[in-house]
Amino acid sequence: MNEASNFFTSKLKDALGWARKFSIFQYPFVTACCGMEYMSTAASHYDIDRFGAGFPRFSPRQSDVLFVVGTISQKMAPVLKTVHDQMCDPKWVVAFGVCTCTGGFYDNYATVMGIDTIIPVDIYIPGCPPRPENVIDGLMKLQDKIQKGEQSRTLYDPNTKIGRPAEVQGAYTVEGHIKHIESRSS
Amino acid sequence: MTQTRSMLLNVGPSHPAMHGVIRMIMELDGEKIKNVEIEIGYLHRCFEKMCETVMYAQCFPYTDRLNYVSPLINNVGFALTVEKLLGIDIPERAKYIRVIMSEISRVTDHLTCIGASAMELGAMSVFLYMIKAREFLYELVEEITGARLTISYVRIGGVKADLTEGFVDKAFKKIADVRKVLIETDELLTRNRIFFDRLKGIGKISAQDAMDYGMTGPFLRSTGINYDVRKASPYLVYDRLDFEVPLGSTGDNLDRYFVRMAEMEQSLRIVEQCFQQMPEGPVSADLTGAVVPAADMVDSAKRGKTEGLIEEEVDLDPTLQGSTRKYHDAINARRKDVVLPAKENTYGNIEGLMNHFKLVMYGHGIRPPAGEVYLPVEGANGELGFYIVSDGRDNPWRVRVRPPCFPIMAGLHKCLVGDMMADLVPTFGSVNMIAGELDH
Amino acid sequence: MTDNISVPKPAGLLTPLQRIQEKFPALIKETHAFRGDETAVIQAAGLAEVAAFLKESPELDFNFLMDLSAVDYLFYAGGRIQKEFRFEVVYHFYSLKFNHRIRIKVPLDEKNPEVDSLTGLWSAANWYEREVWDMFGIRFKGHPNLKRILMYEEFQGHPLRKDYPYNKRQPLIGPKT
User: Fold this and answer.
1) Mean pLDDT, 10 residues at a time, chain B of 440 residues
2) How many Cβ contacts (< 8 angstroms) between chains A and C?
3) Complex ipTM
4) Where are the beta strands (DSSP E) in chain C?
5) Structural domains in chain A?
């Protein structure tokens, strides 16, 4: 009896995952150049409609995947957080383009060095801008996550320095570099 | 006791219009717009400050991302400004290649603008057709530069690589395909009752206001003023090419749509003329018949067996296609203090290696004389100007970009006031605001 | 000299630089035409007069204010070239009718950088001057709405000045680095 109900719940979960992954309602938070590649991916050549993701919902209340496309500046960061908070669970976040992953080559006073310092991120799609094939690869990885019902996210951990700008890692000076190597080996 | 107050509506930074991040705070009286306040700066990526921290040649990726729908025009503008500062001239073939790539970029910009604004009005198929045409052009750009969007193709003193074999035929075929798409779009939109009514008479601006605000480009030409930088101060080879500058008359959205459609046709004409007028390509000096693999050449050079290496033809990596010794002098100026040597020379002999070293290492590099220059080029939105101040060292002292859509956005409230709320969408779409350029 | 960027000038007529040199000899500090760009450096007090003359004079008719920006000359050329003033506000003008250009530079002191606003003559100056205030901290007397345009209001400092480090972030939300 228990096994039968487990069998049914797991099949139900699979079916739910299958339904969710092929009906993605994304909110394209488009800011910069990656938006052009997002448009190319959404159009006929590299269709994402065949994945069921063809209908962008321009309201956070109605969408479940937040595609953050393009550089997020410090002025835009509170807006991004508000939009993310307005979305209902279950929600996933895709960091599209290297400016959203780690800040890109815009290490300056006005850019957020990676949106995972503000909101939790599920999938990182690097590239400047990423080719549409890369985007579809990232989308398929997202679909695997949705199928399993996972929401394993990364969020900025102030205790770790992995992936943060180099001056935080202290790896630019010789002493800093030696310290960095010694701390890793100990 | 009834009171009438106007409503404040915030069209926030993140909104469905495909053009970029901008915030418009509108004061509405029912459906009519009484006043608009526009807030920009949501994509300020510090182009000017970043350019001060790197060398001249390293500024090109930053310039790509200014107007990211027509990146080659920004590249060409920056390169021309630095060349004016240095006082050098580039070979004819490089000039023609730069013109071809600029015009292809202009077409992609107008395609994106019209496609996105048509989609916002509900014509989804037009968007798909325009993006399809844009993909054809991206394939051409990718063939030459290696990337679709952010290409960093132009170098100071020339371009990175020459055109590939058979490019001309491919280009003519793709241009014919793009023309077919333009005809289809014309059939779908121009006599479409809904499109016409939504654009006619909306977003009007008078010629006097447009000049007062410093607007240039299709926005100004739609009011009837004939100002195009390519005709007024011709740069590269535009004075030898035969093209028209389409003008509107009333300065409303419909005229801007017509001006952009006509400009695309003129740009394609320019590209075809360039292919016919371009001087012949690679200079085959006295090369012996054999082709040597690159690794063998580097090995024999390192061992000191450099006799005859200058004449041998070397088989290099595909990513260096078009920039090898055979093509190098046709597309780059003959200035060793500005232009990197061909890769065979860098690895094959000590003079090339030293030349490369002197241009690339920190503390060396291109050193223009101390002074300042301003050079305008015709961007897709208007006059794109670069103002560079040099102090004689290897980093630029100040790089200022004059974004063409900055004054247009400054004067946008004149176009919007008096229209209805739903007219915001086509008017804003016809501005073709690119946030990367507006906020530099 | 590059030949591909030359504009043919009618011989015998005075250029814009010569015209303002003969009209305002006291206000002009120096002039040059490096690489063909005519430039005049004038005193800050005389900007309003010169700008009005440029716009209204029928032989000059500069109806376009193409660009308005500023340059900070702190540590110029590593200290080898000494500049008298720290800031310079740079104006680029263009005339549609005669197709000529001119650049006007106004040097300003670092203690109290202030200059007249040109919003009365060209409406384009409005946003350009806001940007110069935002990036350099130069005030414009008579500007209707001088507030930050590219950065947010909580930002302290003026980023394009040479003493502001390029990667000093002041985040609104999120961690400090």
Assistant:
1) 87 80 91 91 91 90 92 94 92 93 95 92 91 94 90 90 88 95 92 90 90 92 93 92 92 92 94 91 60 82 78 79 82 88 84 90 86 94 94 91 93 90 89 90
2) 47
3) 0.91
4) 28-32, 39-42, 64-72, 87-94, 101-108, 114-116, 139-141
5) 2-155 (3.40.50.12280), 159-186 (no CATH)
